[in-house]
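Q: Could you fold this chain for me?
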Amino acid sequence: MSWNDCLFWYAQEEGGVYFGRDKEENEGVLLLEDPKGPILICTKVTSSSQYGTYRDVCAGVRVELERPYTLRIKRESALRGGMNTVLDGLERGARMLGRKADLTPDYGAPEIAGERGIHTNEPEFTRWVLQSRELRALLEAWPDYQLRVDPMGPQGPDHLVEARVALERGLNLFDDLDRYGRSLDLEAEKTAYRASRFSEQLNALVGLAKAARDGVTAWPMPMQQP
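A: Sure. Below is the predicted structure, expressed as structure tokens.
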């Protein structure tokens, strides 16, 4: 079953305004209403080659912040994991010598930082953002999910908070064929959708975007050093 098909059935169950075509596969968009602002669900191309096109599923919300803020929380590569092991060893050595080293900052969330790469332009503010228990719980429960916060333009307070996951890895696009290879009829397709984990997984992605939105707006940004 294509992304468009799954998103269509999700909209029938969860509500929202769906934009898409029956014969397209990965271009569908869903706009959800929320008391704190609309939530946009869509796919974005991350890479393309002769072997295929790869996409992320994105759930995005808007926020206003006092100044430009960036945050990346993503899956850690094997190379990055090896580097962190080396840096951890250096930090332990520095502590044994009575010196302070902060080579692998955990931003007050060691259970997240130990498994993820966290990059930000405001480490102190990010420590406050990651005090959100809901945000940390979702990041821990869904290790394939990533988070981005970026300014929406060259100036102004508007930012995009976006939860992302690879379409090919992070969501269960249910099969629309029966055991004989025949296309399911409408009722069977509805049943297959309800039996899949698509709704649960997409709800978690939306929940992550909302938790991050709440996390970055729960505290005033700290004053910058002159």
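A (continued): The radius of gyration is 20 Å.
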